[in-house]
Design a protein that fits this description.
This is Fumarylacetoacetase-like C-terminal domain-containing protein. By secondary structure, the protein is α+β, with helices and mostly antiparallel strands. The chain has 3 helices and 2 strands, in the order ααββα.
């Protein structure tokens, strides 16, 4: 979950009590997976005003309304990597 927290903290404000969900949901996958299988935006993307409900058996349920979109934060450019990358040679001695 650590990379998800780091990614979520880049743009929106994450505060005590916020719930971050991860993993595969019970409807067959995330929107990207469903859109790939369905060859289109079915189900449609979330829009402002939609209500999202997360239910966890034995714990309970939490619902929240999708708010207005905020502009994505500016991110620095990725650093350049050299074209040639050397890999270690694997020999019988290194694998024994």
């Amino acid at each position: 979950m650590h990379p998800s927290r780091a990614c979520a903290a880049v743009g929106p404000r994450v505060i005590l009590g916020d719930v971050l969900g991860s993993g595969t949901v019970g409807n067959g996958g995330c929107l990207g997976e469903l859109w790939g299988r369905n060859q289109g935006l079915t189900p449609p993307p979330l829009v402002e005003g939609d209500v999202v409900t997360l239910t966890i058996e034995g714990i309970g349920e939490i619902s929240n309304r999708v708010g207005a979109a905020e502009p994505a934060p500016e991110l620095p450019r990725a650093r350049r990597r050299p074209r040639l990358r050397h890999r270690a040679e694997v020999t019988a001695e290194t694998t024994a």
